[in-house]
Structure prediction request, 719 residues.
Amino acid sequence: MLEIKNIHKSFGQNEILKGVDLQIDKGDVVVILGPSGSGKTTLLRCINFLEKADEGYANFGDINVHLKTASKKQIHVIRQKTAFVFQNYNLFNNKTALENVTEGLIIGRKVPKAEAAEIGKKALDKVGLSEKYDAYPSQLSGGQQQRVGIARAVALNPDIILFDEPTSALDPELVGEVLTVMKNIAKEGTTMLVVTHEISFARDVANRVVFMDGGMIVEEGPPNEIFSNPKEERTKQFLKRVLPEDYIYYI
Amino acid sequence: MEKYFNASYIWESFPMLLPYVKVTFLVAGLSVLFGTLLGFILAAMKIGNNKVARKIANAYITALRCTPSIVLLFLVYYGLPALAENFGLLLDNVDKLFFIVITFSLQFAAAMAEVIRSAYQSIDKGQFEAAVSVGLSNFQAYRRIVFPQALVVALPNFGNSLLELIKEGSLAYTIGLIDVMGKASLIIDGRFNAHALETYIALSVIYWVISIVIEQVFFKLEKIFSKGKQVIKTT
Amino acid sequence: MDFKFLVDTFFVALSGVPTALIITIISLLIALPLGFLLALTRINQIPVLQRFAQVYVSFIRGTPVIVQIFIVYSSVPLFLTSIFEKYHIDKNVYDINPIWYAFIVFSINTTAIMIEIFRSAISTVSKGQLEAAYSVGLTNVQALRRIIIPQVLVTALPNICTATVNLIKATSLGYAMSLQEITLRAKVAANVGYNYVEAYIDIFLVYLILCSLVEYLFKRYEKRLSKYKIAHA
Prediction:
């Protein structure tokens, strides 16, 4: 469904992505792991054109675009097919929770207001925020804000949702509620590409894990394979540092 | 002192001055209109990636910030016709209002450029990114998400700049505009400079009231527009 | 364009700089401490003084400087004349150097501006700083002088810079008191041959240089002081 080929991206002298290929099928939940600075977030942002890649192609169903020279219209079409969940939520500060969810529907997709409100309420119910339709972001906790962020993405019914470290800005006690919501929507068959540091989510929910380091994909495969039997040295080193069991053993 | 100061002259001055508040507002209104437009252009030059444009905008803003209004006013009043003459344009019979509005538009634009730039930059880039990520076009993202939030940030500074503009506008009397300030000097001339103090007191009260009203209006506007900004105290 | 006049008058305008600077410096010397003290009355909510400071700031900020000048320039002589008459002092008020009026007007004006600047600056220094100062045994005055004021100054400095530049610009209104400063000197020179364009270009340049210089000096001083500033994440 989504195929990415040979993405390159530099910021000044700093080469962040050095030719990444990735294929995602319908219903996949792909988790990207890797140390900070490995280019995971940049990869996600390039897919949604929040950064302009220097090189590379994206194959999106029947559309094939050159990432660097994509036209405004192509960018718009791809953004309509994807949704993005941000690390720091990026809820629209001047809109209520419900308005946050319906904004893309009403303005971006020209869905009639009443219908959009219907969809929006359902999405908010799904993330457990039935009581908070009219709350502004400033009145919500971080976990609640991120759940609105997820509802905003779900409501668009996109082909794929891109999650950029959705729990790393949250206090530890709020991480659980967000992960639960993500698990639920994964169960419904939503295609997801998730950048995260939550190993447990990768192990329990993902059907494929991608390990990135130094701007390249080092290794990928089903979670039990990657976690129990990594082939590459860099993957082993990384897992040794982050896996809870090994961590305890290490002490 | 009593023989020089007579409070009844203060009361007498009000009805004579008040009709000319219109002219004061006219100058301010036109200058706000043109100044804001130019301010938007300057802010865009400052925010944009073009180095030359940014340098020009910065130089303009610095120069205007360092020039007293009265100097700018006379520079425009004497300089513009001289400049236009080189192009074969005769500006001798143009209304004074023209030069006054140009002066204060130029000045207001410099202030607005900074107000707009700082308001724009105060809005997190993520707001725009989130908007396009849910399928809004760039223009829709600016108009519906970024602009309404920037407006709230800009309002108090806009209000302050407007107050400054109205106060500085009082200097237009020096080239003969009959606004509320100009009328005050006419009244004083008419009384052969006697009881100037009383007239000026009346004048200052009018300006003071205008300022307080504008301050309150902007305070209210800020409240109305700051949707989603209310801070809930949770302890 | 008369270039010889342009060059000559530039120096005429320049000769007005000392007057503008003296007024600026005297006004700041009065306004800075007075503004700080009055800002404290508003923050500590001292009953009568606080109310006075509030109305005072509102009036000064709500009226044009030129009107303030005219009020002082027409009221102080009246006041002095009546005093002179009462105590039979043989002195003519019109012999007083107009620079004294300038000192009065601009000090009154700048003090109001400083109250506002210090009020917002003081409110940014957290209460914890004061509490910490008390906790190590500093007295009220010591805490203020050694802990609070240095921090307040850093926060207030950019606004004090703006106020100073505005003050220098405002001295151009000294013409209304026949004060021999930059603008009036150049204007008088222009009266002879109607070289107004040249004269105002000179005046413009002198203010531009003067104000840019002041801004530059403040920026350098700000850099030196900024070690107090804690970077907020």
